[in-house]
Amino acid sequence: MRIAVLGAGAIGGFLGARLTRGGAEPVLIARGANLDAIRRDGLRVIEAGGEYTVRPSCTDDWSVLQSIDAVFITLKAHSLPPVAERLASSLGPATAVVSAQNGIPWWYFQRHGGELEGLHLETVDPGGVTAAAIEPGRVIGCVVYPAATLDAPGLIRHVEGDRFSLGELDGVATPRVQALAQALVAAGLKAPVQSNIRQDLWVKLLGNAVFNPMSALTRASLQDIAESAVAAPVVRAAMEEVVEVSRRIGIDIPVSIDRRLRGAARVGGHRTSMLQDLLAGRPLEIDALTGSVVELADRMTVPVPHLRTLYATVKLLQNAAPT
Question: What is the pLDDT of residues 262-272, one digit of tens each?
Answer without folding.
Answer: 888 887 787 89
